[in-house]
């Protein structure tokens, strides 16, 4: 297994790739991908970085684990392959977009169009064994993705972090809130959304208002 990541990120993260934890992680993954069905496909593991360059980065959305069902995960948090039924959390994200921006919700669940505009769709854990949620947690991915957040915080200015749910909110400690904007809300999963913790957060209009105020091109959600 190889680190197939865009040069803009490779220049930032090269130090991580040399560390023992990362080498152990990739040894584990090589065995998993050879002997188990894992998601996303190996070529898509670093898609979040490959569709959103470090230079273009404007917004970070944090997820936890890739989808573990057939043909779902494509390397971007909350995103699914083209033509795949939208999972419940993504359905609620699209409902909020429609209400917040008074537009029709997106038809495609493939969020690469967001990534190409500068939205880093980052899961804390970038891989998973098929039908076994959380199966690749605590193997080193979290160390890596925490380092990614830290590098963004240290080396970028005025990035908007959207932290949805308790797990994502824990990452606040990695972000310099004096340099960046942090918006928090409940998770879009039905359990949280139906209890009033998601709908009405207006994160999409707020994000665009902040970008516009800084003279930065808004996101076409």
Assign a percent range to the helix content: 25-40%
Low-confidence runs of at least 5 consecutive residues: none
Order of helices and strands: HHEHEHHEEHEHEHH
Q: Mean pLDDT score, rounded? A: 96
Total count of strands: 6
Structure report:
With 221 residues, the chain is α/β, with parallel strands linked by helices. Helices cover 38% and strands 11% of the residues. The protein has nine helices and six strands, in the order H-H-E-H-E-H-H-E-E-H-E-H-E-H-H. It has helices at residues 7-17, 20-35, 47-50, 88-101, 112-115, 141-155, 166-169, 190-193, 203-213, and strands at 38-39, 59-63, 119-123, 128-129, 160-164, 181-185. The strands form two sheets. Strands 3-2-5-6 form a four-stranded parallel β-sheet. It has a two-stranded antiparallel sheet with strand order 1-4. Helix 7 (166-169) links the parallel strand 5 (160-164) and strand 6. The chain is globular, with a radius of gyration of 17 Å.
Q: What are the defining features of this structure?
A:
two-stranded antiparallel sheet, 221 residues, alpha/beta, single chain, 9 helices, 6 strands, four-stranded parallel β-sheet, globular, 38% helix
């Amino acid at each position: 297994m190889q680190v197939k990541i865009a040069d803009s990120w490779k220049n930032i993260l090269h130090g991580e790739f040399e560390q023992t934890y990362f080498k152990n992680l990739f040894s584990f993954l090589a065995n998993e991908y050879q002997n188990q069905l894992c998601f996303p496909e190996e070529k898509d593991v670093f898609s979040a970085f490959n569709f959103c360059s470090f230079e273009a980065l404007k917004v970070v959305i944090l997820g936890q684990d890739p989808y573990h069902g057939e043909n779902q995960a494509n390397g971007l948090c909350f995103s699914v392959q083209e033509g795949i039924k939208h999972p419940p959390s993504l359905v609620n994200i699209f409902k909020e977009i429609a209400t917040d921006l008074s537009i029709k919700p997106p038809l495609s669940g493939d969020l690469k169009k967001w990534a190409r505009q500068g939205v880093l769709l980052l899961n804390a854990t970038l891989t998973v064994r098929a039908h076994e949620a959380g199966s690749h947690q605590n193997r080193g991915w979290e160390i890596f993705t925490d380092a990614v957040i830290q590098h963004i915080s240290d080396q970028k200015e005025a990035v908007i972090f959207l932290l949805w749910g308790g797990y994502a909110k824990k990452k606040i400690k990695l972000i310099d809130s004096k340099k960046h904007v942090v918006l928090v809300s409940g998770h879009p999963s039905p359990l949280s959304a139906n209890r009033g913790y998601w709908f009405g957060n207006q994160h999409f209009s707020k994000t665009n208002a902040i970008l516009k105020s800084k003279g930065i091109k808004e996101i076409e959600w």
